Amino acid sequence: MINTTCELPDSNPPSEEIKGILRKCRTIAVVGISPKESRDSNRVAKYLMNQGYEIVPVNPGQRKILEKPCFRTLSDIPFQIDMADLFLNPSRVPTVVDQAIDMGVQVIWMQEGVVHNKTAQKAREKGIEVVMNKCIMKEHMKMSDR
Fold it and tell me: What is the three-class DSSP state of 65?
């Protein structure tokens, strides 16, 4: 049976574009990262760090995650980031995407289970690449396999 309660992505970049995104984006804000090592957000961020990416944790309830200073919101980051990687309930996506647009982020990546087509369209209209409902770690591993 098809689950009609969650939105499906209206579009995503093709595989070659996703590889390009993973090559060009080196500083990634992980929005909604958990301090718990067992959580996907923490495991994915740790994987990305091990692959040479600069990770910027964003979680309002934490001061430090993965030995890095943690910011309350995307807007609180005082330097340029290339990508916002979202581990959020889809209802929280519009606020974060607005912050990403204001910051000039190049890419918004919504992890598996995170889709918000209306907000993705708004970001695309501002020239931001958007990936939805895909795990950045899995996509990176596919790229590394070839």
Answer: strand
Strand order in the sheet with 129-131: 54-58, 27-31, 83-86, 107-110, 129-131
pTM confidence score:
0.93
3-state DSSP assignment of residue 21: helix
Residue 44 neighbours by CB under 8 Å, 6+ apart: 30, 85, 87, 111, 135, 136, 137
Query: Can you tell me the distance from the alpha carbon of 115 to that of 103, in angstroms, rounded to the nearest whole number?
Result: 21
Residue 36: band (very low, low, confident or very high) from pLDDT cuts 50, 70, 90: very high
27, exposed or middle or buried, with CB in 10 Å at 0-12, 13-18, 19+? Answer: middle
- pLDDT for res 7: 80
36-44 average pLDDT score: 97
CATH (residue range 15-145): 3.40.50.720
Q: What 8-state DSSP symbol labels residue 67?
A: T
